[in-house]
Fold adenylate kinase.
Amino acid sequence: MLPVFPVFSGIPHIATGDLVREELNSSGTLSSQLKEIVNQGQLVSDEIIISLLSKRLEAGEAKGESGFILDGFPRTIRQAEILEGVTDVDLVVNLKLREEALLAKCLGRRICNHCGGNYNIACIDIKGENGKPGIYMAPLPAPPQCVPNLIQRADDTEEVVKERLRIYNETSRPVEEFYRNRRKLLEFELPGGIPEAWPKLLEALNLDHKDKHIAAA
Ligand SMILES: [Zn+2]
């Protein structure tokens, strides 16, 4: 997930998962249909996601919003195609992290089963080699009162995480290609956590996209 960075604080951050949750808790037109889908354990269709998204974008425009950051969407080529008919995307930022670091991050995830806090015990310190820069990501330690209650998600095993990554790579590659062909893709290799990545990301955005504002990431 792309964290909301301070410089974008005036620009709304839209995550489609939040849109679905908001609609479920509302009395909106799609709410009962959504409840049925979720209760049956089915995936929410692209059409429903896009319709929630258009509704959100129209509401934003009416309020005078001049842009938005889309988080985690589109994930498939079909979603990208439908999105193109709904709004103009200026720029797509592909945040990349080496697989060994991603894997260590997922395996290091801990949740406090009392307060729901999210922490990470992984200390990632991969040395640079063969021209590849090293990566350092500090752990996110739990406060003492949470430590006795830390649990690991049942699906954060090496096997499951690797399978998730494989599926992600398979579906995201055509989406990257879609935006690369339209010259809208910015590839960004994460050098570490947010403190290391943030200045470099700003630099990349300013150098390559001076007069564009960021509509999607
Ligand atoms: Zn706690």
About this structure: The mean pLDDT is 84.
